[in-house]
Amino acid sequence: MSDTAASGPVMSADGVPLKRSLNRALRAQKIRALALIAPLLLFVLITFIAPIADMLFRSVENQIVRETLPETVQRLGDWDADSGEPPSEAVFTALYADIFLAAERKLHTRLGSRLNYEETGASSLFRKTGRRVDRFDTDIYTDQITDLDPAWEAGATWAALFEAREARSALPFTARSWERWTDFVINEEEDDPLEEDVPDFLYTALYSELADGAGAGLDPRVDQVIDALPGFETVSVREQFLDADEDWGGADIWRTIQTYSPAYTSGYFLNAVDMEKGTDGPQFRPENEQIYLTLFKRTMFMSMVITFSCILLGYPVAWILANLPARTANLLMILVLLPFWTSLLVRTSAWKVMLQQQGVINDTLVWLGLVDDGSRLVMINNQFGTIVAMTHILLPFMILPLYSVMQTIPPTYLRAAKSLGATNWTAFWRVYFPQSVPGIGAGSILVFILSIGYYITPEIVGGTTGTFISNRIAYHISSSLNWGLAAALGTILLAVVLVLYWLYDQIVGIDNVKLGG
Amino acid sequence: MNRTTALLGSAALALTAASALAEGHMAGEMTIVSWGGAYSASQQNAYHTPYMENTGITIINDESSPEAVAKLRAMEEAGNITWDLVDVEAADAIRLCDEGLAMEIDHDEVLAAAPDGTSASDDFGDSIISDCFIPQIVFSTTMGYRTDLVGDTPPSNICAIFDLETYPGKRALNKRPLANMEWALLCDGVEKADVYDVLETEEGQERALAKLGTIKDQTVWWTAAAETPQLLADGEVVMGSTYNGRLFSAIAEQGQPIGMLWDEQMLDFDGWIVPAGLPEDRLARVLDYLKFATDTQRLADQAAYISYGPARASSAPLVGQHAELGIEMAPHMPTDPNNAQSVLVTQYDFWADYRDDIDAKFQAWLAQ
User: Fold this and answer.
1) What distance in Å separates the CA atoms of residue A455 and residue A170, rounded to the nearest whole number?
2) Per-residue DSSP letters for B80-140?
3) Span A173-178, mean pLDDT?
4) β-pairing, B29-33 with B171-174?
5) Are residues A115 and A126 in contact, defined by beta-carbon separation less than 8 angstroms?
6) Strands B219-222 and B134-146
């Protein structure tokens, strides 16, 4: 008996193996813990993580081109962008169908705005073409086909024709176009496609496929059209597009459509680091359009300067606060916190009044005779202004962690060091300072990360040389509507912060950061 | 028992009352988005108050126009449009229309005809720059200068901004390329008719930036139009560009020593758009309001509160006096014949195309 017990699994009192029983108990505990944090977890996931992920996803998302111009994108696949020539008539015929449907659904201008980010002029090109596309001279195909047999005018004829699988596979382009059009009429117009006029672009699509030699023997009506084809009067779809806007005759817009046809693009990220998709891979943008790398570097540099000046100004204040009797310290603490209770905009505007050339500081300096009236100091609308205003605004974020860490350093340590013969400086530098480093670390992280994403203060006092990357992100979100680029810039900023955090962890160690106690 | 019933009863009562109240709000409320400040006040006085008195509908003002484009896009993606009518600049109206976020309307059908029977589309004329746009006012970006800081010869020509010898001191200009590029080219000797042709080319853009470069380090770049009057009042700059209504209120209402330069004022329009995808009942209510708020008399009324010109031709003769100051408003309109001797009209199609490109170059140039 004792033998089996030793070699077999250990049992719990109810005869279940102990391991399983323990696991079960632990699992129950885990589930309970999870259930307890579930509300918060869900809240954070739904209101914080998911929107951010969704926003960041926009930096690569690019479905709009292939969704709006599916036929064109497909046929443009084997067009040689280096030829410098516009693509073939077949591509223009596909574009005709795509743009016609896009214009009906009012999507062509949206695509135009999207492509305009890459190719200047695309916006008006699509807007103009959209206005013209239902007045193309392609109605001669409509007339010639319906003259042969008026039954072609009825949607029912088309519907019956594409019922048959052979017709769908013999005339795929026309069949797909018919399907897209009926789909649009049913779902968006909420009408019956069989009662609508069959649009011209379908006749053009049918003609183009039949003229390529497809579709023989499908249906007597189709055969009738094929027989009559040699006598047909024709019109070039390409010419129609060129009439609407001659930019269609150049290779540039086609190259852009081809380059941006995949569903995901690195274009926004390239743009965010001052690059673009060239003919042979990524290349830098012309020098006069490079701005983002400068802004990233400036944001990093200025955030570091601000963090450093916060340490310089905040350390002595925190030290005094920590070493004063509690009553005085509390009073001073209120002074530190006071700015928190004042609106950010008011504080920033106050700095404007202080620093401008006709402002308080300059007036005082002129009055004291330190500065000539004609050469008042320029202290606002530049980097200096941003650094001063942001240091002031972020200072409490440095003082508070420093203060709470310093409070825990026993004053007896300093006295002990001095009694052992250390000078004031040595006692501070060798004994006190090392113990306050966790506070500096916490304050620096707070100040740095806050300042790296700061927007409103640089916008108001930064002028042209003191603005941050976040000002451009805001511009693209609210003004240019280029959310893809804004998302790419934001993603890069996030990545940079994470890398810096990691570096900080490597160098200082995140365990050395204390917000208090 | 009794107490429980009473409690339950009152709770039920409160619930019904609350839901009735909520329903009432839904039925009788309309959220109109505008720019805030003096401009919203002028709309409140000229349109909202009389309309609310006539119909009993409550109009809620939302001052989100500066972020309207982005917010509308976000609302559309969320599938919940909470705005009924939005006041935007013409260029934004074009963008919203392109994005499918604003509803296309038939101007003759939706808007009231002029009193003499001229159709709305003829009465509004060129100000209908997009199928989605219902014009309201004409405003202009123009120059103001400190009368006491420009010496004995106040500027009479827009090119004074580039003349650092005669008018030394700082200037305030918009931190966007619009208007700046056009003025730079004009003052660099380009014929007015050719400005946009030149600006289309790479060399033209370089040329405009080079001209702006001559005053770059003497310029304060503003992002909010209210900054220029403030900078002028503080004596921080000797001259600066802003909207004519801002200058009017600094001069006429606050009595600042500021003069106004109408030369080559950049005309622009501001007006309404109806968000796409409003439910039937809300749409009907908005269209009813629109018909009222954009009729000839209402547009003329607005000019009594702010010095922006009514977009309807038929409103111009009806423009009267300022509601509080009692001064004639007509001479302060950008469209007044004396003021409109030389104007530049914003080319929206051009800026829709070139905005991204030129803005990138402009911002890169600023950052250098």
Assistant:
1) 59
2) ----SEEEEEHHHHHHHHHTT-B----HHHHSPPPTT---HHHHHGGG--STT-EEEEEEE
3) 95
4) unpaired
5) yes
6) unpaired
Helix residue ranges per DSSP H, A69-218: 70-76, 89-104, 108-116, 122-132, 139-148, 155-163, 165-170, 172-184, 200-211
* Burial class, A276, CB count within 10 angstroms (exposed 0-12 / middle 13-18 / buried 19+): middle
Contact B355 A480 (CB under 8 A): yes
Work out the number of other CB atoms within 10 angstroms of the CB of residue A207.
Answer: 23
Interface of A with B (CB under 8 A): 106-107, 109-110, 112-113, 116-117, 120-124, 127, 288-291, 294-295, 356-359, 381, 459, 463-465, 467, 472, 477-483
- Reported as a single tens digit per residue, the pLDDT across B195-233 is 999 999 999 999 999 999 999 999 999 988 889 999 999
Interface predicted TM-score (ipTM) of this complex, two decimals: 0.85
Portions of chain B given CATH number 3.40.190.10: 2-136+270-323, 139-268+340-367
- Give the residue from chain B lying closest to A121, CA to CA: B353
Q: What is the tens place of the pLDDT at every residue in B20-41? A: 444 444 568 999 999 988 899 9
Check the CA dihedral A329-A330-A333-A335 and report its sign.
Answer: negative
Tokens coding B327? 């001064």
Q: What percent of chain B has pLDDT over 90?
A: 73
Residues A421-460 pLDDT 10s = 999 999 999 999 999 998 998 899 899 999 999 999 999 9
Q: What is the separation of C-alpha B11 from the centre of its chain, rounded to a whole number of angstroms? A: 48
Contact B63, B34 (CB under 8 A): yes
Mean pLDDT across chain B, nearest whole number? Answer: 89
What CA–CA distances, in Å, run from A196 to A106, A130, A181, A201, B12?
Answer: 19, 21, 11, 14, 53
Interface contact B356-A480, CB threshold 8 A: yes
- The answer to whether A122 contacts B361, with C-beta atoms less than 8 Å apart, is no
Span A352-366, average pLDDT: 93
Check CB contact under 8 Å for A481 and B363: no
Backbone angles phi, psi at B146, to 5 degrees: -80, 115
CATH class for the region spanning B139-268+340-367: alpha beta
Quick one: tokens of B345? 């009209």
Phi/psi of residue B78, nearest 5 degrees: -80, -10
Q: B165 burial class (0-12, 13-18, 19+ CB within 10 angstroms)?
A: exposed
Domain residue ranges of chain A, discontinuous segments joined by +: 2-57, 70-284, 293-512
CA separation for the pair A514, B47 (Å, rounded): 58
> Across the strands, what pairs with A234?
none
Cβ-based contacts of A478 with chain B (< 8 Å): 66-67, 69-70
**Residues B91, B176: Cα–Cα separation, whole Å:** 13
| Number of Cα atoms under 13 Å in the Cβ half of residue A468 | 27
SS (H, E, C) A199-247: CHHHHHHHHHHHHCCCCCCCCHHHHHHHHHHHHCCCCCHHHHHHHHCHH
Digit-coded pLDDT (tens) for A58-97: 999 999 999 999 999 999 988 988 888 899 999 999 999 9
DSSP structural state of residue B353: H
Closest by Cα among B182, B214, B212, B211 to B198: B182
pLDDT, mean over chain A: 90
Give the containing element (helix H, strand E) for B59.
strand B58-62
**Ordered DSSP codes for B286-339:** HHHHHHHHTSHHHHHHHTTTS--EESSGGGGGG--B-TTT--BSGGGSTTSTTG
Looking at the domain that runs over A293-512, which CATH code has it been given?
Answer: 1.10.3720.10
Give the architecture-level CATH label for domain B2-136+270-323.
3-Layer(aba) Sandwich (3.40)
Separation CA A261–CA A184 (nearest Å): 22
Q: Above pLDDT 90, what percent of chain A?
A: 69
Interface contact flag, A120 B353, Cβ < 8 Å? yes
